[in-house]
Amino acid sequence: MLFAMLVLFSGNVEAENHTVTVTQSDDFTSYFFDPNVLEVEVGDNVLFVWGNGSHNVAQVSDSESNNYESGFYSGNPQVGGNWPLPADFTAQDGTLYYVCEPHATMNMRGSIIVGSGSLPLPEISMEFSDFPWLSYLLVFPIIGALWSISFGNTPNAPRLIALFTTLFTLIISLIVFMKTGSKSGYSLMEEYEWAPNLGISVLLGVDGLSSPLILLTGIIGPLTVIFAWEEKERPGLFFSLLLIMQTALYGVFVTLDYFVFYIFWEIVLIPMFFLIAIWGGDDRRYASIKFFIYTFTASVIMLVGFMALYIESGANSFSMIDIANSSRELSINNEAFSENFQIWVFAALFIGFAVKIPSFPWHTWLPDAHVQAPTAGSILLAGVMLKMGLYGLIRAALPVLPLGAVYFVPVMVALAIISILYGAVLSLGQTDLKKLVAYSSVSHMGVALLGVATMTELGLAGAVFMMFAHGILSPAMFMIAGVLLHQVGTREIPKLGGLARHQPKTTGIFVVIFMGSLGLPGMAVFVAELAVFIAFFQSHGYWLLLPIFGMVITAGYHLWALQRAIFGTDSEEIEMSKVHEAPWYELYPMFTIIIIAAIFGIFPHYLMDPINTACYDILIFMGVL
């Protein structure tokens, strides 16, 4: 365990003295108790002796004296120091957590069992649904895809089918989000046996971690279809691929079985590969192959990690819940899931997920993919697909590999800060607006990774909120690039200028979206960045100045692009008489995104409440809180 628990206070016996020696690992990330498990009686005295010579005294007393001191907390988390328990704490069954100074995120190995009680473990709450809401999210886009492709090159039917299907799944996504709410554990669960002899089943469920991303997928779907309304090249196949990708994305976010999770993860690659390869730019073959090689190789490494978890757990199940429970019990009893095992498996999973984030140095496929992809492909790629990496890290790696996660905290912090600064600096030097937004995504997702690396409730919640906020606003940035290409004829920023006089409505939307992306208060990105930076300052102090500097650069390239493209004198390289406002099917999706980003920027609790609950559950299960 990463914390020590005191439970089941009862009876008065002759007090005994106990000593627990606490040693710190060489990398300063872990603390170990000797003995690992200490059984005491009410009234016993426990002396914690630290390797550096200091010590904390914990006196386990009876219910009347209420004398429990030094480094224990009850109720709201506190770190270090000495204080008494609340006066109303009695000898009834209860739990006290011991937290080591200076950081609650440090991994502590040890438990204290008081009286005749046994060590309670946090349970994973599961609530099965009487109605297959999650199955609908998976089945209806597939039906729409098959129906759409049957119309071949007929333009009207495929886009209408795609719009109807995505609007229907948006409604289901809203229902799922509202039904999940801020409840602890998994809701709306469904289970269908597939290969029981191998422990494989289609196990579906949602919580506060996945429900915002399900909602995000539902929102981006119809907006993508509307923006691509005038697609003329093989529309049946085009809209069919969009729907297949939506099914796979939903599958990643609702699946609680490692094997099925991997299948949906791989399916996502297929439609995106063809969207780039068929409808992409001049270098589409190179970009699509590079995209496939990077992501498929990472997926194979991730699969090796999944198989290691399956074998080591001995649970004969690919269920994330079963393996998490098994890993925790085996680790506590020192039977399996050793720290060394967790470090190596976490490394495999982290690489597999980091490519999809994408984090430096595995990001190089992203700019090529974005620049060559059609606008609709970039919308889905930036809006939802890039969220798979961090979601997978939080869902599939953290709960089962807490020791590995804590060990990799310095690595995650370093890569996150490098991604923030590197992405921002390269964005500042871009002339193609699409490539600028691509590198901007590397920087923004670096902020989200930084939140995960804090291993705190606020930081983790800020990371998930950033995934949603970036998933809303980044597609709008790519829509802007698409509008410029369609209406002006170029995305090259130096060739633009003076567009505000010729496209007042369009450029007004541009300004708001750019301001939201750079973190303007009142928009969703600001809330996410604020949460992550507060959490990072609490855990790492003035190292926060590095990512803050990255945000200054972020403001710089956003404002430079706006000033150069929209304001100033008319560009001599563009025939301004032919520049008109964007059509309705390009303006409406961007305007809708502004409204959504503002709603969650002004009322963030609608997202933060369920996210906080899920993050708290995960960290409690890991033993970090």
What's a quick, concise take on this entry?
By secondary structure, the protein is an alpha/beta fold.
Write up what this structure looks like:
With 625 residues, the chain is of the alpha/beta class. Among the domains are: 4-114, no CATH class; 414-613, no CATH class. Helices cover 57% and strands 11% of the residues. It is built from 20 helices and eleven strands. The protein has helices at residues 133-149, 156-180, 211-227, 235-254, 258-279, 284-313, 320-332, 339-354, 365-372, 375-385, 387-397, 402-407, 409-428, 433-453, 457-488, 504-517, 524-540, 545-565, 584-602, 605-622; strands at 4-6, 17-24, 30-40, 45-50, 55-59, 72-73, 96-98, 107-114, 126-128, 186-195, 200-206. The strands form three sheets. It has a five-stranded mixed β-sheet. Strands 1-7-6 form a three-stranded antiparallel β-sheet, with no helix packed on it. Strand 4 and strand 5 form a beta hairpin. Helix 6 packs across helix 9 (365-372). The longest helix has 32 residues, at 457-488. It starts with a strand and ends with a helix. The relative contact order is 0.09.
**Beginning-to-end CA distance, first to last residue:** 11 Å
Kindly state the mean pLDDT as a whole number?
81
Which structural class should the secondary elements be placed in? Answer: alpha/beta
How would you write the strand order of the largest sheet? 5-4-2-3-8
Low-confidence stretches: 1-13, 51-120
Largest sheet: 5 strands, mixed
Shape category? globular
The total beta strand count reads 11
Helical proportion, percent range: 55-70%
Provide the gyration radius in Å: 26 Å
Q: Give me the number of helical elements.
A: 20
Fraction of residues in β-strands = 5-15%
